[in-house]
Amino acid sequence: MVYSKKITGFLLGLGISFLSCFDAVADPTKDTLHPELKNYVPTLHPEIVEDRLKCLQKDVKLTYNKEILNHINFYAVKQRNYTKTIIERSSFYFPIFEEILKKHNMPDEIKYLSIVESALKPRAASWAAAVGLWQFIPGTGKQYDLQQDHYIDERMDIYKSTEAACKYLKYLHNMFGDWQLALASYNCGEGRVLQAVRMAGGKPHDKNIDFWKVYKYLPQETRSYVPAFIAVNYIMNYSNEHFIFGEDMQVHIPSDTIHVNQFVNIEEFAKQIDVPKEHLEQLNPHLKKNAIPAYKRNYPLRYPSHKKEHLATNRHAILSASNRASRREMLYVTPENIVPSTTEGKTKIIHTVQYGESLPSIANKYGVSAWNMQTWNNMQSVMIHPNQALAVWVLPNSPFAKMQNNNANNNVAKNNVNNNVAKVASNNNKVHIIQSGDNLWDISSKYNTTVDNLKKWNKLYGNFMLMPGQKIIVKQ
């Protein structure tokens, strides 16, 4: 871009030389910035960008190349309003991320990954059913104990999902020994990256193998993923130099938790502790209906920490009022306002879905509610399919419970025979017990097979994880 001598003079007057990574606009705002510079878009000079990235270098390698420059151009030139919005949101989320990253001894710059994943929107959802700030798919979320049901989806919990992301990324970094490869794995799964490393002629922890060596073997989306992360690192540190300033910064809310064992209406709870309802919603985006359901036990509710003393003093009255408040928002799932019954003192039986059956018809057969069955089976909807196994909890004196016991006794001898047959059959399969640090590439090399075989024999799909103590088939 060619700019006028007058603007050049203003730039020099502000100390902007564009010569190194140390130049900066000293805390400019929309009020103090000269009117002629408010809409000024500086030119991207490759040598300056490269120099600045070197100055940002910490734990995660911030490579510079044309691909990176193209992504920086997106944030610094093409989508400046989007970048401004991200900056405004970051002031609320980054203090939380930084604290948790520090706790896990993780690189501070990993916080920028959430921008690539979700644009700092806690309820962001993708076409692949990934949800939250860190975009966990349902299966991976469950692996990291992120609860998901009709009322609560902890993939949207700011604190719990960030903890889960740290654990998953540490696992991936331990597998590859390289943060860029770990980030790539976070996007497309460690199986795909292991395969790409193998196709590039290397193996995990090989110092000659990095993201750019395996680049052409990765999915198209992943090829852009790491460059986007590097570009976000750049723009979040040098937004001032590109005259992109947050104007409506979100205020960070220091928070604490109270553990409850009852229904809690968030709007009423906010009134009782005298804070804006929006603050509680902002701290608890995982409460999908702005309430904690009655069946949760010792469940944490996050609130502004400056209300801790008031809440401690008036806990009973506050929770009682919050419990009596309207449950209208909850009724879309349970029209009869049924609170899921306890399984204590009951017998679990398994029902195999037959063609033509529906969840309500099955529930009616056993004398329970469809909502209870959804809860017992952790179902996101009432959709079922033939041959699906459903858990049903009935009273011990129920004819269904007695029938299950009789069937169990009749099957003991049959099971003993089947176990012996299984033992003989299993002699053809060689099993490996996963140790800490194991990965599919090393295991496949050890047993002279391929990663694809291991995945096929063990039915490993998507963002699977190998856990210490897990047994996998390594030869058939």
Concise description?
By secondary structure, the protein is mostly helical. 46% of the residues lie in helices and 8% in strands.
Compute the number of helices.
21
Report the sheet with the most strands, covering strand number, pairing sense and barrel closure.
2 strands, antiparallel
Side-by-side strand order of the widest sheet: 1-4
List the domain count as a whole number: 4
CATH class term of the largest domain: Mainly Alpha
Range of helix content? 40-55%
Mean pLDDT: 82
Alpha-beta classification: mainly alpha
Explained architecture:
The protein has 21 helices and eight strands. With 476 residues, it is mostly helical. It has four domains: 5-242, Orthogonal Bundle (Lysozyme), CATH 1.10.530.10; 255-330, no CATH class; 347-410, LysM domain (Membrane-bound Lytic Murein Transglycosylase D, Chain A); 426-475, LysM domain (Membrane-bound Lytic Murein Transglycosylase D, Chain A, Roll), CATH 3.10.350. The strands form four sheets. Strands 1-4 form a two-stranded antiparallel ribbon. It has a two-stranded antiparallel sheet with strand order 2-3. The chain has a two-stranded antiparallel ribbon with strand order 5-6. α4 packs across α7, α7 crosses α8 and α12 (266-273) crosses α13 (277-283). The longest helix has 24 residues, at 80-103. The model is unreliable at 1-20, 22-28, 331-340 and 409-426 (pLDDT under 50).
Which characteristics define this entry?
two-stranded antiparallel ribbon; 476 residues; 46% helix; two-stranded antiparallel sheet; 8 strands; single chain; 4 domains; 21 helices; Membrane-bound Lytic Murein Transglycosylase D, Chain A; disordered N terminus; Lysozyme; mainly alpha
